[in-house]
Design brief:
The chain has one domain. It is 45% helix and 12% strand. It has seven helices and six strands; from the N terminus they run βαββαβαβαααβα. It is globular.
């Protein structure tokens, strides 16, 4: 599994932490193997397709299907990106799963602590996170409650019940980052 993130800190720390929580070793999370590129969604999807294709080529050359990725995900925020619609089309056409958070990925992190059902912006989410993570500055800290992933999923589903598939933009607030967590969880169980 490959997870490529728009963000370079929070997303990477989260998915590496959840991978370790479930002991899911075959998860390649970029920018430390969860790739955090700090790019716009269109560029992120293009990069992800190239990464996936490179691994598939390597798998064919070595005649080892285990080298290729079984699942490929991109993690993006809605923000004010002008390339989100282009990224959605490219992801669908390229066989990439896009997890989208509105307004930002930190909403998924917040759901590990509390509900958030009213429309909001990134600043209000970060303020709320500071109540739960002392001096929150994008880093999650060692004591992050990864075990709350199911509660977080339930909160995300209550906030936007229709945001339950990849390559779909939900309403504010919404996140389908829980889809990636489910795949990582299943990967850990199959080992």
């Amino acid at each position: 599994m490959l997870v490529v993130c728009e963000g370079q800190v929070t997303e990477v720390e989260y998915f590496e932490g959840i991978r370790d929580y479930f002991r899911s070793l075959p998860v390649d999370i970029r920018s430390c193997k969860v790739i955090g590129l700090g790019r716009d969604p269109g560029s992120l999807v293009d990069h992800t397709i190239r990464e996936r294709d490179k691994k598939e080529k390597e798998a064919r050359a070595q005649r080892d299907a285990n080298i290729a990725y079984d699942e490929v995900w991109c993690v993006v925020d809605v923000d004010d990106h002008k390339t989100l619609d282009q990224a959605l089309i490219a992801a669908r056409q390229g066989g990439i799963n896009l997890a989208i958070s509105l307004p930002c990925f930190e909403l998924w992190v917040l759901y590990h602590f509390e509900e958030c059902a009213a429309a909001c912006g990134p600043d209000s989410i970060k303020r709320k996170l500071r109540k739960h993570i002392k001096d929150y500055d994008k880093h999650l800290g060692r004591a992050f409650p990864f075990a709350n992933h199911e509660v977080a999923r339930d909160r995300a589903q209550r906030a936007d019940p229709d945001h339950c598939t990849p390559n779909r933009k939900g309403r504010n607030p919404s996140t389908n980052a829980w889809l990636i967590v489910e795949v990582i969880r299943q990967s850990g169980r199959s080992r």
